[in-house]
Amino acid sequence: MEIVSSISRMQELSALARRDGRIIGFVPTMGYLHEGHLSLMRIARKKCDVLVVSIFVNPTQFGAGEDLAQYPRNIERDKKLCREEGVDVIFLPDEREMYPENYSTYVEVSGNITNVLCGYFRPGHFRGVATVVAKLLNIVQPHFAVFGQKDGQQLAVIRRMVRDLNYPVEIVGAPTVREPDGLAMSSRNEYLTPKERKVAPKIYESLMLAEKMIQSGIFDPEIVKDRMRRVIEEAKMFRIQYVEIVDAETLEPVKKIESPVMVAVAAFLGKARLIDNIVVNPR
User: Fold this and answer.
1) Domain segments of the chain as ranges
2) CATH code for residues 2-174
């Protein structure tokens, strides 16, 4: 396994692999790896000859007052896990390598796909996400890249960006990996106290209730969302940021559930901001 910190060396390795006809798979991460990340690597490993994992806590997707400085990091543990998963290259740039002095170019996906859900509450977040992913795709030059469905809006935004900018790369969506009690795995779960961790699965419980209601024929999103909020609020510890039901592809809000929808939740639990979603087909 090679650990690469320079963009030029990463581009060189990718060019050599492509020249030799090898398939490059890519998993971008912000590190502090958990089973969710490892599941993405396993999916990629089966489909490629060269597996590249990036570890970079991207400052441009954090807003003022967010947890950039406190975001959990453990590079040595991350390296060990990557080695165990058969990763060929870890791309581990620092901030100066990715955003040199006087950096001034950004990628922005406009419209409802970035203005709703997390995008509404985190202005500029998806500009940072789109910019860093665009840069990483240019640097790594993968044939495909794997992203988790847990960050459902991020996945939709990246797919739109890749389509609109004609990137020759396949974006693979992977199922959300959950703890046995349903809590979606996330690096930010590290922030939860034992008491908070005990009630955190209420979010998943609300999503499962929504799926059951929709598949039983309740197609009014307001009724479904109201029931979801009640489930989450039973714990009396959450501060709900949003409970929404949107079109699964465009993320446009829906007035009636008639086609596949993304049911999405964001809520604060102590210091942690937890997000989760599922896609439900009413038919």
Assistant:
1) 2-174, 187-278
2) 3.40.50.620
CB 35 within 8 A of CB 180: no
CB 124 within 8 A of CB 37: no
Give 126-157 as a DSSP string.
HHHHHHHHHHHHHHH--SEEEEEGGGHHHHHH
Beta bridge pairs of residue 244: 264
Give the model's confidence band at 235: pLDDT under 50 very low, under 70 low, under 90 confident, else very high.
very high
What is the pTM for the complete model shown? 0.95
- The 10s digit of each residue's pLDDT in 112-141 is 899 999 999 999 999 999 999 999 999 999
pLDDT digits (tens, 9 = 90+) for 161-208: 999 999 999 999 999 999 999 999 999 999 999 999 999 999 999 999
Tell me if domain 2-174 and domain 187-278 are identical in fold.
Answer: no
Query: Residue 65 — very low, low, confident or very high, per pLDDT cuts 50/70/90?
Result: confident
Tokens of 111: 């419209």
Which amino acid is it at 40?
A: L
Positions marked catalytic: 37
8 Å CB contact between 191 and 261:
no
The residue written with tokens 């029931």 in the block is 227
**Other C-beta atoms within 10 Å of 283: how many?**
6
Q: Write down the CATH number for the domain with range 187-278.
A: 3.30.1300.10
Residues 20, 169 contacting (CB under 8 angstroms): no
d(CA 121, CA 258): 27
Instruction: Give residue 83's identity as a one-letter amino acid code.
Output: R
Q: Dig out the tokens for 244 from the structure.
A: 């929404």
